[in-house]
Amino acid sequence: MGTLPLDLINVDSLHSDEELQIRSVVRQVVDDRVRPHVARWYEEGRVPARELAREFGKLGLLGMHLTGYGCAGASAVAYGLACMELEAGDSGVRSLVSVQGSLAMYAIWRFGSDEQKQRWLPLMATGEAVGCFGLTEPDHGSDPASMTTRARRSGDDWLLSGTKMWITNAPIADVAVIWARVDERVAGFVVPMDTPGVTAREIGHKLSLRASSTGEVVLDDARLPASAILPEASGLKAPLSCLTEARQGITWGSLGAARDCLHTAIAYSTSREQFGRPIASFQLTQAKLADMAVELHKGYLLALHLSRLADAGTLRPEQVSVGKLNNVREALAIARQCRTILGANGISGEYPVLRHANNLESVLTYEGTSEIHQLIIGQRLTDLPAFI
Ligand code: TGC
Ligand code: FAD
Predict the structure, then answer these.
(1) What sequence ranges are listed for the domain Acyl-CoA dehydrogenase/oxidase C-terminal (predicted)?
(2) pLDDT, one tens digit for every residue, the chain (388 residues)
(3) Which ligand approaches the C-alpha of residue 179 most closely?
(4) Can you list the pairs that 349-353 forms with residues at least 24 positions away whose Cβ atoms lie under 8 Å?
(5) Which of 3, 52, 87, 275 shows its CA 20 to 30 Å from the CA of 40?
């Protein structure tokens, strides 16, 4: 199998041998370690995240686009291909890797002290330590500038108080990057999860991203040494630049989920017969398949173009919004359309399609909702901010 079903426009020819090699290694690990189990993980709402983290660490997938400290130093394109293959398994599995590498590790790598980097990055690159990233709060999601989590001085120490909500990996994490207000400015803190005053609770009853651990983090006067602050992070720009990293992985990853749905729909419709013929022989089915393949290939070219800009060092945040908005929106439309092709089987966990569709509902919301990305693009087009 090529990168996309039938690879209609030969996107494989746009990649180096090394990129294609990374793709096939990640595809293999997903086939071996994720695909056979993921329907059960999803159903049970449990995933062996720490075990997977160590396996992904061995393959160099954690913080793979970062350099030094045991990180692989891969290109943005290679990282994107890895995200695509992981999310073809499940969005929750890709989330595990993006939160670790693009959010928690990136924040420490980009804004941390030498001591913070030496202590955490090598452990996180191997998956021995799992990280999480706490920006969202119960009352402040799209508008993190209004956060109420605060850090105040107590002698040389810091005391952190507040609540972070919807934090991927929090219940299983060893360390959190927590964003908090210090006076009027936003600052970042590296918080070991066993710090007294820090508790993480699993959020239950999720109907989406069930193969991923999501939690609430409560900080109740959690005492941290002076050295816990990220010295290079000043203001909201710091966490937002971490989001720019993670949104690139999502631009690719969402295509993986869509690809898996389209593969399933093609295989199903060519074998399922109604009215004495395969349902794939009906023109209405073929129109659906063709339209989905076209969107998938367009999204691929967009993701590749943006990652090449990232590798050239010229990618801008609003360009990332174009990718995240389009590719997640189209991936969700593809997943829903594929579900119709599977008929009643489309709602069964025996097939991956509704699981992907349900997951993509979270992906549409996290890392900036589709509306927020529309507004970011709108601001660029008009020079008029419409957030407030
Ligand atoms: P605004 O005044 O626009 O910006 C403040 C400063 O930040 C700069 N900036 C960025 N820099 C890098 N990357 C970006 N994406 C940036 N966006 C803005 C900006 O230039 C400015 O710099 P400076 O030097 O002037 O100070 O800030 P605002 O308060 O008006 O907010 C803008 C808005 C709404 C776009 C932003 O708040 C936003 O993106 N909101 C969405 C929140 C969000 O995406 N949260 C995600 C939480 S993490 C998560 O969901 C993980 S999911 C798990 C997984 O990934 O798998
Ligand atoms: P709100 O901000 O309340 O938005 C609700 C609705 O209002 C949306 O449709 C939104 O687009 C719309 N809206 C808001 N403001 C405007 C506006 N100005 N104009 C037009 N429409 C607007 N966060 C983390 O920090 N770390 C994580 O690891 C993390 N993991 C997550 C995992 C999952 C499974 C999920 C579901 C979320 C996760 N999040 C995480 C949180 C995620 O980033 C937020 O849910 C997201 O930013 C949206 O915030 P909200 O849910 O509070 O929605």
Answers:
(1) 234-381
(2) 666 667 899 999 999 999 999 999 999 999 999 999 999 999 999 999 999 999 999 999 999 999 999 999 999 999 999 999 999 999 999 999 999 999 999 999 999 999 999 999 999 999 999 999 999 999 999 999 999 999 999 999 999 999 999 999 999 999 999 999 999 999 999 999 999 999 999 999 999 999 999 999 999 999 999 999 999 999 999 999 999 999 999 999 999 999 999 999 999 999 999 999 999 999 999 999 999 999 999 999 999 999 999 999 999 999 999 999 999 999 999 999 999 999 999 999 999 999 999 999 999 999 999 999 999 999 999 999 998 8
(3) 2
(4) 349/39, 349/42, 349/43, 350/39, 351/264, 351/268, 352/38, 352/39, 352/260, 352/261, 352/264, 353/261, 353/264, 353/265
(5) 3
Residue nearest to atom 15 of ligand 2 (CA): 142
Q: Could you give the 3-state DSSP secondary structure of residue 161? A: strand
Q: Does pTM top 0.95 for this prediction?
A: yes
**Catalytic residue, candidates 87, 216, 245, 367:** 367
